[in-house]
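USER:
I wish I could look at a protein chain and see how it folds. I am handing you a single protein, as its sequence and its fold in token form. As I understand it, each token names a local backbone shape. I hope you can help me see how the letters and the tokens relate. The protein I mean follows directly.
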Amino acid sequence: MLGASRNAALNRFAGRYGLRLGAKRFVAGETLDQFVPVARRLNANGFMLASAILGEGVASEGETREVVTEYRALLARISGEKLGANVALKLTHLGLAIDEGLAAKNIRDLVDYAATLGIFVRIDMEESWYVDSTLRIYRELRNAGCSNVGVVLQAYLYRTPGDLDDLLPLQPNLRLVKGAYLESPEVAYPRKADVDLHYKQLIERALRGGGFSGIATHDENAIRHAIDFAKALGLRAGERFEFQMLYGVRPRLQRQLIAEGYPVRIAAPFGRAWYPYFMRRLAERPANVAFVLGSLLRG
């Protein structure tokens, strides 16, 4: 499925049939106007949001300017609607695959604009070959005095503990994930058990090190481990950490954590370029595949 997420023919097929293929469970609409009611509903149920416009690689500088315009509109709408939401974005959507300087310029534009509105911006992490440039751009933003920006670390990469140690002096705002891209065993742990173990270790290192951690997982075992470890450190619910989960994935667990007093942020992306994102959600959890097949059989 991870391989299929990059298949251009399947992407075109999915685009023809829109969200009827089952992606509607995981994608908060194809347009900003469709996203806003979803965001209001989630906020009303006690959730914060991480909003994103779906899309990754772009082919030209002109396309990146269009993406920047779309994100500025999203930021303005979040502010105008007073939504409890921040923004997450991919640097390849802003031109990283074309030129690092172009992506750095575009993200600085958005981070600066978001700061005027009091909105936080998260830089997503992508495939392993983008890690160095992504972390370099993040450091440049922090060194320039941008405090409303964070980044993501992926537990399945061998290099991640070293990257975390390098970032901790910045007291960073991090999202900690297991990782959802198809990577070589030369750079990433191939066994799920190893990834699960190193994810827990990453949580511990981050909570001990300071800053703020978005613990982004649907693994209840990892969530309970994080809660117990935070209590052992004397951290109260929501102090220096929150849980982050995907729209449409394990909603019962999301509600349970809210009921227990833990802050939960829902990643609720929208946009027409939903296919690669959708396929990665199916690959992450077999139950997602069963849900989609059931939806298709029901018509």
About this structure: The radius of gyration is 18 Å. The chain has a mean pLDDT of 88. The chain is about 50% helix and 15% strand. Strands lie at 48-53, 85-89, 121-123, 149-154, 173-177, 212-216, 241-246, 264-270.
